[in-house]
Amino acid sequence: MVSRTRVSAKTLGNYINKKVTMIGRVTKISTSRDCIEIDTSEDIKINVSLNEVFEGPLDSIIEVHGTANSKTTISADHYVVFDKEDNADFDQAEYNEFLTIRDFKLGQSVNLREAFSDV
């Protein structure tokens, strides 16, 4: 299994050419539906290239699993669209706060790095 790191838009550039996981709200869908733009809680737009046609609605919350290509682009291996109930309940700002606290703690302990990496 390949491990992935959950990242925020502000830290994406630190993971170029590495496997990442990111959550955001879909704000644009290309006409071919193989590229989307997501907006993060930090008001940063991230472009996501998909290896399949996007099947979700505009304005949905999505979790992207893929490779960071730059500080604003991800090539997705796959994605998960949150259902309507989760979409309504998801607090992007709170999730981002979790990532900030986690990143701070990771800087303090190597064991925590293993605990918070996705596999």
TrEMBL record:
Name of this protein: Replication factor A protein 3
The family this protein is said to belong to: Belongs to the replication factor A protein 3 family.
Keyword terms, alphabetized: Nucleus
Domain of life where this protein originates: Eukaryota
Major localization listed first in the record, in broad terms: nucleus
Organism in which the protein naturally occurs: Aphidius gifuensis (Parasitoid wasp)
Keyword Phosphoprotein: no
Gene Ontology CC terms: DNA replication factor A complex; site of double-strand break
InterPro entries found in the cross-reference section: NA-bd_OB-fold, Rfa2
Gene Ontology terms for molecular function: damaged DNA binding; single-stranded DNA binding
Protein's cellular compartments: Nucleus
Signal peptide from the UniProt entry: none
PANTHER family for this protein: REPLICATION PROTEIN A 14 KDA SUBUNIT, REPLICATION PROTEIN A3
A GO BP entry: double-strand break repair via homologous recombination
